[in-house]
Every structure is written in structure tokens, then in C-alpha cells.
Amino acid sequence: MGESIHIVLDETAMVAAMPTPELPNGAVVATTDISRWDHRPVRLLDLNP
């Protein structure tokens, strides 16, 4: 079965992007401001054009 990806759109939901037993690779944070996520242990999806 493939890995599901959950998209987190708000920085306050960073906890949701952290790895868990159900999502060992964590979720993905979608953002237009990559620099706000420097040094945070989450995967990022850059939404800039």
C-alpha cells in the first residue's frame, strides 16, 4: 500500500507535520515562505511560482 501524504497549510499546525507512528516520514507543509520553516524538522512544498 502506498504512503499517504497529508498537506499542512498553516504554521500553527506544525505538530501535524511531525513524524508519528502512523506517518513515520511526517507530513508535508505547503508554504510560500520557505524561510519561516528554517531549522524545523518538517518536509516542505514550495508554493512559489
Number of alpha- plus pi-helical segments: 1
Main beta sheet strand tally, sense and closure? 3 strands, parallel
Query: What's the average pLDDT?
Result: 74
Number of strands: 3
Order of helices and strands: EHEE
| β-sheet strand percentage | 15-25%
- Which structural category do the helix and sheet elements fall into? mainly beta
Helix content: under 10%
Which residues sit in consecutive blocks of at least 5 with pLDDT less than 50? none
Termini separation: 32 Å
Structurally, how many domains make up the residues?
A: 1
Shape field: elongated
Biggest sheet, strands in spatial order? Answer: 1-2-3
Tell me the radius of gyration.
Answer: 11 Å
Give a concise summary.
By secondary structure, the chain is mainly beta. It has one helix at residues 14-17; strands at 7-8, 28-31, 43-46.
Can you give keywords for this protein?
49 residues; 3 strands; three-stranded parallel sheet; mainly beta; 20% strand; elongated
SSE order and pairing:
Layout: E1 7-8, H1 14-17, E2 28-31, E3 43-46
Parallel strand pairs: 1-2, 2-3
Walkthrough of the structure:
This protein is mainly beta and 49 residues long. It has one domain. 8% of the residues lie in helices and 20% in strands. It is built from one helix and three strands. It has one helix at residues 14-17; strands spanning 7-8, 28-31, 43-46. The protein has a three-stranded parallel sheet with strand order 1-2-3. Strand 1, helix 1 and strand 2 (28-31) form a beta-alpha-beta unit. The N and C termini lie far apart (32 Å). The mean pLDDT is 74.
